[in-house]
Each structure stands twice: as C-alpha cells, then as structure tokens.
Amino acid sequence: MVRTVVAVVAAIVVTIVGIFAFEALTGLFFAPPEAAATGDKEALRAAIAGMPFIAKLMIVLGWALGAAAGAVAGVVIGRKPWIAWVAGGFAVVGVVLNSMGLPQPMWMLVGGVVGPLVAAAVIQRVLPVAAPAPA
Q: How many domains does the chain fold into?
C-alpha cells in the first residue's frame, strides 16, 4: 500500500518536473515572450499566437514526454501498470486548466489531451512489471 502511494506521488512529481524541464528546454531555443514576466494576459495571448509552430509543437511534445516520464517512474516504483494513467491524467488536467486561462490553438489542446493519454497507454503496455519478491 505504501509503495503504491509513493508511486502515485512520484508519478505526479516526475510528470510536473518533466513538463517544466521540456518547457525550459523549449525556452532555450525560443525565448519566452516578455509578456510572460509582466502577467498581462492579453499580451501573453498575443505572444502565444505569434509563436512559431515548432515552439508550440515542442510544448505539446513536452506535455506527452512529461507524462511518459511520470508514467515510467510510477510503474517502476509501484509495480502496477495502472499508475501510468495517473501521470497521463494529471498532465491532461494541467493542459485543460492551462488552456482555460490562456486560450491556445485547438490543435494544441487536442495534442495536449491525446498525447499524455497515448504516452500513458504505451508505457502501461510496454513497460514490464516486475513481480514482487516472495516474502
């Protein structure tokens, strides 16, 4: 039971860290808009609309890869395949909440919902789950 709780928490933490890390990597190639520092939502919306396609694609990939990393961590620690869905679901909730505050192109929202769920499904099916050691 404790292992499962630790695995779920690890899945969520690794998902968050993975997404932030990939977004930071994206920021190295494409400087974040100045509006992000000011907190002006209208300026930020305009800046997002003006971002290059590849920068937006990297953000969507980061959502999926962050969920995949969280799924791997959760399944490896908890030895239960369903924990992969915790990471995928958590990433999807974050994407939806983020898009409610900052409207993004529809393809980003669709990719942000589908990508993490596909990542979770792949990890759940591909990652072998080690049987617990006999007591």
A: 1
Q: Is residue 92 part of a domain?
A: yes
Domain that holds residue 110: 2-126
Find, among 89, 3, 97, 19, the residue nearest to 58 by Cα. 19
- Per-residue pLDDT tens digits for 14-57: 999 999 999 889 888 887 666 666 767 777 777 778 888 999 99
Say which residues have a Cβ less than 8 Å from residue 131's Cβ, sequence separation at least 6: 79
Q: Which residues contact 22 (CB under 8 A, 6 or more apart)?
A: 58, 59, 61, 62, 65, 66
Task: Output the pTM of the full model.
Answer: 0.86
